[in-house]
Amino acid sequence: MNITTFSNNNVRGDDSSPIIRAKTFNIPEKCFNKGVGCAWRSGNKFSIYPRSQTVSKTPKNDVENKILNIRHEIVLFHPILRKLVNESNGTYLSLQKLVDSSKNNDNHVELLKLSRQYRSIIRVCIENLQEALNDAKDGSDMINLQSYITIFYSVECIWHLCEILYIDKIPGDIVLPYLLEWVRFHFPCHEQTAAQLLEACERGSEDHDDYWDTVIGMVVQGRVDVARALLKLNSLSETNEFKLVDNSLRSMPVYSIYGGISTGEFTVTWKHWQAECRAKVTSRVLASQPKLELIMRLIIGEYSAFESIRSTYTSWFDMLGGYVMFTAPWSRTHELSAAASACAGMGSMPSGSRLDRTLRALLEGDMHQVIHEIQHITDNGWFATHLSDILYHCGKLKVLDKHQNNVTQRLRDSLILEYGTLIMEHKSLWSVGLSYLASCPPEGLCRAHLLLERIPINTHAKAMRVVAEANKYGLLEVGEGVWRVLSGRHSAAGRDGAALSAAVRGGAAGRAGRCAGAALRHYCRTGCLPAPDLLLTAGPALLIDDTLLFLGKYCEFHRMYKNKEFRKAAQLLISLITSKIAPDFFWETLLLDALPLLESDEAMFTADDTYDMMLCLELRAQNFNREKAELLRLALLRNLARTALAEKPEESTQ
Amino acid sequence: MITVLNTIDTGHEDMIHDAELDYYGLKLATCSSDNSVKIYDIKNGTQTLAADLKGHFGPVWQVAWAHPKYGNLLASCSYDRKVIIWKESGEWTKLYEYTGHESSVNSVAWAPAEYGLILACCSSDGSISIIQYSQDTGNWDVKKITGAHAIGVNSISWCPALSADLNLDPLTNKDAPKRLVTGGCDNLIKIWREQGDQWVEENRLELHIDWVRDVAWAPSLGLQRSMIASCSQDKRVVIWSSDDNVSWTPTILNTFDDVVWSVSWSLTGNILAVSGGDNKVSLWRESTDGQWLCISEVAKGLGQTPNDERSTL
């Protein structure tokens, strides 16, 4: 049996869309040969069972029928990465709040801060993974951890460049300094060696194996000062050739937006400087020192010079900073794609890694491609979701589909919804997932509703949490549903009081009524009323059902009686009797409750009340125990006698 | 990457026809040609047999779990023309048995919980029964739609409560009529609407050229759109969509190599699982421009084979 998860077989494809072949997973169980069915669990889990549509004439016992529960493995649920999920959730929510509260203002400073927060969360995650790797003993664990570390390094690298190009507001848009910083931070090739050499400060450092590579590396990273310092450590540093190169490096013009000169003027000065350097190269004065000549050729931006050193670097972005610096240092953020293509095209090294493609797309400004590539870097939407969200809010994400419709919002929303749904799978992270879904109405809230209903509520604490979260996002029905399920469970277990209170809190009228009826029956048998605290304080919640209301009032009656507020109790009792909401089986008890009040020294009931009671009694006399009915009649008559006399004082007594 | 979480040895002596997980994913019910329904408790990757329900006299075709707020209720339908509703109160027992059909009952589906406790069943005698539990009387009231499809009705599915009111003012949500979709041996898909005390045929969707084997109404996502998936012996899966629940537009998802037996939507309605006679389960999703594609992924899998080879064991 095969599970084919992804195929694009039916798309005959324009040339632009790649045809992705199916990924097929074989399940090596014989029982699935007959046929297979699938039953969904939550989003990334389902069950596969051998299913047959036909009826077999003879039962076959030869193969055991098995059912497999299958889950799409999610890296994010690894314990270390859960911290990433939680912390990034915090940043995400701050972002949404920021955007909501300041619709028109320019938020870029705040957004930059949040972007940096995301990056620092990633870096902390990498550190934790590194620590875990150091402690790991198991081979496959180590492999996994190493791959996660590699993945997250790429993630942070891409995010950083994205931040520079799209989130940060660079003065004058002159991107070179930031680009250089990015290259130096993420591809620190020869930094350590350079630092060592400088610290050692030895003359004759060129004897070190990596000396020239380091010097050239520093030049390519635009660290002209370091390169000069290293050259000074060379034993031949006093020779003419060295002095020439040093001079050129020293006199290189560096653009600063605050320098007071315009880009036009700078360009002229810079081109003049390059022309001088070029002259030095063509005059072959450095022919005796090929390395120095190479350096000069690099600083005049000669393509073949860069190409010749390409093989010493693992990827073309190592050279990007230098290339831009020595060909077009006034480049603006959106003018980098030419330099990127040039560097990427150098040499015959295949540059097909996903990181390469993503960075190319980023430098070319093709955000759709960037998101597409990013989605493949991790198997979950963490990166794509958070990055596209922040870019969307910066207004820098513009995606058009093949019909030229602006689908930016849909893309961003769909990423968030998928991510939220994914995270809701997890038994502890579900509330995190919920917050993502809630930030994307209306579909998000519907999904939240569907998924919240399915969270198992095995403990009271869990149930409370689900209710709280549901209420927080206005999903009141889910909360009510949870209460009803709890009420049902309590009833089934015989815990009437708990069942009643759960039903009331869930606003479940029918169920509450039934629980109230059960409670009253219980009282008839045992004389105990369940959940008195709830009933006395529930207030208007009791109005949902008559029986429930009756129970509540009856509780009140008992309380008054206990507090010796007899008159009030009597009034309440009469209103209960006349309202006729008592369940049939309870009338006897109710009327008999009047007995002590009737017999008391002071008349608690008026004549009219007494008439009402007598009427009730007669209507229901056949259901009553005869003796009790007699007692009641007698008491009622006596009360009638004294109240009739008392109420009509002007009539003369017999 | 996918992992197998756990494997359940079912102990059914014969073919399994359906397996469904309850709302919380903690119980699995399976039914088989050996006339029994088995219920398993699933916890932490292990399963225990909770009950073996015997009450049918023929192969049991389908099981369906009701919403947990009604307690633990399971419905099963069988070739023996009966629909049985089982309830767990401590132990699993038969709560109600419905014998109103004259032929094999092929499919059962519980209505959305917002409507109450209602079960719809459809049968090879061409009729549909809608059984509703009344809290006041404790009885099950039955409404029948006869002659729904010629030869027989194979599958039935309810419209989610939130979708039912696509054109109505949200304030009148509660008055939205209930809807059902059925697929039958007359190659048709019909949509039924409750009108007052009756059920009337609201729409007839024609595209398939052979028996319709399964229909499934997608869960509602709060969007102004309803979707129904249908699959048929003509090897095609079709997605029908509508903005107003009145007029429907079909899109053919794919034509497969063999008969397609069943379609089912994931919980949030964004992925469709299709399984069929070609021994495969495939997962499909709609892209932003309305095309049905599969999610692409590049990851190591379980027993992954290179693309063009597919070996069966």
* SSE succession of chain B: EEEEEEEEEEEEEEEEEEEEEEEEEE
Could you estimate the helical fraction of the residues of chain B in percent? Answer: under 10%
Report the end-to-end length of chain B measured between terminal Cα atoms: 21 Å
Using only CA atoms, what is the Rg of chain B?
Answer: 19 Å
Q: How many β-strands of chain B, per DSSP?
A: 26
- Assembly type of the chains comes to heterodimer
Shape of chain A: elongated
Strand order of the largest sheet of chain A: 3-4-5
Count of beta strands of chain A: 5
The number of helical segments of chain A is 29
Classify the beta-strand content of chain A into a percent band.
under 5%
Low-pLDDT stretches of chain B are 164-173, 296-313
**Could you describe the largest sheet of chain A, including whether it forms a barrel?**
3 strands, antiparallel
The main pleated sheet of chain B reads as: 4 strands, antiparallel
Structure characterization notes:
Chain B: One of its GO terms (molecular function) is structural molecule activity. The complex is a heterodimer of chains A (654) and B (313). A three-stranded antiparallel beta sheet of chain A has the order 3-4-5, with no helix packed on it. A two-stranded antiparallel sheet of chain A has the order 1-2. Chain A is 61% helix and 4% strand. Chain A has 654 residues and is mainly alpha-helical. In chain A, helix 3 runs antiparallel to helix 4 (176-186), helix 16 (382-394) runs antiparallel to helix 17 and helix 18 runs antiparallel to helix 19 (443-452). Chain A folds into four domains: 76-171 and 371-424, no CATH class; 178-351, no CATH class; 453-549; 564-654, no CATH class. In chain B, strands 2-3-4-5 form a four-stranded antiparallel beta sheet, with no helix packed on it. Chain B starts with a strand and ends in an 8-residue tail after the last strand. Chain B is globular, with a radius of gyration of 19 Å. By secondary structure, chain B is mostly beta strands. At the A-B interface, strand 1, strand 2, strand 3, strand 4 and strand 5 of A face strand 1, strand 2, strand 3, strand 22 and strand 23 of B.
